[in-house]
């Protein structure tokens, strides 16, 4: 009997459902000749800003570019400090380095893995200009407390929402709280393109005008002078057309992720694993389903799953402050014990909207066998 395999992510299944719409959109754009900043880009920006409950959206080349341009447009630069969690993907800190500012590494909540407001408060100095919360794994950060700190100390908030398309804090979409929100459209994201892509959301007109030009070498159109030393970071028209199709399905796709998460909870509740915690006032969209494996058994469990044809990943094994590219460039206020412990225990199980209940049960069955008395 052939052993069942479970992929970590199967991107082809979504194409099977939406492929005909993709192909029609591709043919339409290809025949139009408007490959760069064509009308589909503006249409997607309008739809995405409405979805995120902001006045504007500016589509760019990647989530990293969205973060960099957001900071640049707000004047963050050399001599400034930006507080960011160390438990995140490196791009959250790299964007700060790219504008010449200093990332200040903060601790995360041990249950939600999002930025800890108490840690942030201890790190604020005269040099602090902004807080950069990361809505990690599909869950919003604790925005009320962070917004309160920002107001008290006159700081900007820039949301890294690259993993949380559609996530909610008190019935309000992430990406709508800060000076800007930054999103990635990497193919495996909840809203993914067929390549790289990103977007800035904002309700600030000055930021909107600045980032529109910055993404296009400092000007909006070929008839305009270059007002900024910008870069080339434009979401191409084909990707915008594809994203407009997928955006219509995003809420239902997120519900499918939530349903898959419920299957995991039901089947793993009595195992030693620490399961994801959905914090108060939040609606998790489960970009990832991340468990913690206690007792130093994470690597052994991952190897066991692999032996049983079940793919898994680790997001993230090394915190930002210990990355070679960051060690001498970030500010670390002592040892980040919670972050370092989490990095040694986390394991991302298969999660995508089209995963079946049987596949989830296969994963859970293997985990139970791993923990069964030998």
Written account of the structure:
The chain has 374 residues and is α/β, with parallel strands linked by helices. It folds into two domains: 236 residues, 3-Layer(aba) Sandwich (Aspartate Aminotransferase, domain 2); 122 residues, Aspartate Aminotransferase, domain 1, CATH 3.90.1150.10. The chain contains twelve helices and twelve strands. It has a seven-stranded mixed β-sheet with strand order 1-9-8-5-4-2-3, with helices on both faces. A three-stranded antiparallel β-sheet has the order 7-6-10, with no helix packed on it. Strand 6 and strand 7 form a beta hairpin. Helix 1 crosses helix 8 and helix 9 packs parallel to helix 12. The longest helix is centred in the N-terminal third of the chain and has 21 residues. It is globular, with a radius of gyration of 21 Å.
What is the terminal separation in angstroms? 24 Å
Strand content: 5-15%
CATH topology tier name of the largest domain: Aspartate Aminotransferase, domain 2
The number of distinct β-strands equals 12
| Oligomerization state | single chain
Spatial arrangement of strands, main beta sheet: 1-9-8-5-4-2-3
CATH architecture of the largest domain: 3-Layer(aba) Sandwich
Low-confidence stretches: none
- Estimate the helix proportion, in percent: 25-40%
Rg estimate, integer Å: 21 Å
CATH superfamily membership of the largest domain: Type I PLP-dependent aspartate aminotransferase-like (Major domain)
Count of the domains: 2
Shape: globular
Quick check: average pLDDT?
97
Q: Structural class of the helices, strands and pairings?
A: alpha/beta
């Amino acid at each position: 009997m052939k052993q069942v395999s479970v992929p970590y992510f199967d991107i082809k299944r979504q194409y099977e459902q939406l492929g005909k719409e993709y192909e029609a959109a591709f043919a339409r754009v290809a025949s139009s000749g408007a490959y760069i900043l064509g009308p589909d880009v503006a249409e997607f920006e309008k739809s995405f800003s409405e979805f995120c409950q902001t006045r504007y959206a500016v589509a760019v080349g990647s989530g990293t570019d969205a973060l960099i341009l957001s900071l640049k447009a707000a004047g963050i630069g050399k001599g400034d400090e930006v507080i960011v969690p160390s438990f995140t993907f490196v791009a959250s800190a790299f964007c700060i380095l790219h504008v010449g500012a200093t990332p200040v590494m903060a601790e995360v909540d041990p249950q939600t893995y999002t930025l800890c407001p108490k840690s942030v408060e201890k790190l604020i100095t005269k040099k602090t200009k902004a807080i950069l919360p990361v809505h990690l794994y599909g869950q919003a950060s604790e925005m009320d407390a962070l917004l309160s700190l920002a107001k008290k100390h006159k700081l900007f908030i820039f949301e890294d929402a690259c993993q949380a398309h559609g996530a909610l804090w008190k019935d309000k979409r992430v990406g709508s709280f800060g000076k800007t929100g930054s999103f990635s459209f990497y193919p495996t994201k909840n809203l993914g393109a067929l390549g790289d892509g990103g977007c800035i959301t904002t309700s600030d007109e000055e930021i909107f005008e600045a980032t529109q030009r910055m993404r296009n070498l400092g000007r909006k159109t070929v008839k305009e002078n270059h007002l900024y030393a910008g870069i080339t970071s434009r979401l191409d028209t084909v990707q915008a057309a594809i994203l407009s199709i997928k955006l219509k399905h995003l809420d239902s796709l997120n519900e499918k992720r939530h349903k898959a998460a419920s299957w995991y909870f039901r089947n793993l509740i009595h195992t030693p694993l620490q399961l994801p915690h959905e914090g108060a006032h939040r609606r998790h969209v489960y970009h990832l389903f991340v468990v913690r494996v206690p007792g130093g058994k994470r690597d052994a469990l991952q190897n066991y799953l692999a032996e049983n044809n079940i793919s898994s990943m680790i997001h993230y094994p090394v915190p930002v402050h210990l990355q070679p590219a960051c060690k001498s460039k970030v500010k670390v206020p002592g040892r980040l014990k919670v972050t370092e412990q989490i990095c040694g225990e986390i394991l991302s199980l298969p999660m995508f909207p089209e995963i079946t209940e049987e596949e989830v049960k296969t994963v859970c069955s293997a985990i139970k066998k791993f923990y069964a008395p030998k």
